[in-house]
Write a structure and sequence with these properties.
Length: 243
């Protein structure tokens, strides 16, 4: 899989999943634009790792909850040419059962996962369409497909992202741009490891293990490749058989 000459934005590149996807795209020749907000040091370290591996990466630190910050960041990215791969990976949890959920918890989760998708994809889209080649990948969740107690806000955000995926795919398919969502299940990371012990993973996952960020990155790399040009508007699960 080769993306030589193509530029790829990965939002939330400071986390385990974003890092794995960014490294995989960089290994294929893409210039990777690494987004972070609260953890700029993590993307700077990732950019150094990618450079050491022979790849190219740039860091872009901005808040996905700010219209102004996103507009400025996208303008800066587009100054060097179109962005032809967008991986909307950024998302946050702020869990609570709905009767006890504060308005701030609801709005923050929706704002990052759903409004953040709009704030970066919309300004980058026309330049992508003019190239007549593009890949938009939205990182969803098994919670959007099955629901999850204490995550009404998160499930709502990711479920809306799934619907946006399907609608946007219809608008851009004729221009050589595909739009797909990836819905991971339990993927090994510091956050998931703290929440899911081995006994619970064995209970929930037929494969009896958590997935790895690299397995999700492999799926993302395929969907971003020329080989996947006829796959669009899909929500593809990667969850060890949970559903």
């Amino acid at each position: 899989m080769s993306w030589n000459g193509k530029r790829a934005l990965v939002t939330g590149a400071s986390g385990a999943l974003g890092q794995a996807i960014a490294r995989r795209l960089a290994q294929g020749g893409a210039t990777v634009l690494l987004h972070a907000n609260s953890r700029p040091d993590a993307v700077q370290a990732l950019a150094a790792t990618i450079a050491a591996e022979g790849g190219q990466a740039q860091c872009h630190v901005f808040d996905l909850r700010s219209d102004e910050a996103c507009a400025q960041a996208c303008e800066k990215m587009l100054a060097e040419g179109p962005v032809q791969i967008i991986v909307n990976n950024a998302g946050v949890h702020d869990d609570a059962v709905l009767p006890g959920m504060r308005a701030e918890q609801w709005h923050k989760v929706i704002d990052v996962s759903l409004n953040g998708f709009y704030r970066v994809t919309q300004p980058l889209l026309l330049p992508m369409l003019r190239t007549r080649w593009g890949r938009i990948l939205n990182i969803s969740s098994v919670a959007a497909l099955t629901g999850n107690r204490g995550q009404v806000n998160y499930a709502a955000a990711k479920g809306a992202l799934n619907s946006a995926t399907k609608a946007l795919s219809l608008e851009v398919a004729a221009r050589g741009v595909t739009v797909n969502a990836i819905a991971p299940g339990i993927i090994a990371s510091p956050m998931a490891d703290a929440a899911f012990g081995k006994a619970l993973v064995d209970q929930l996952v037929p494969a009896k293990r958590a997935g790895t960020p690299e397995e999700v990155a492999s799926l993302a790399a395929f969907l971003a490749s020329d080989e996947a040009a006829y796959i669009t508007g899909q929500v593809i699960s990667i969850n060890g058989g949970m559903i």
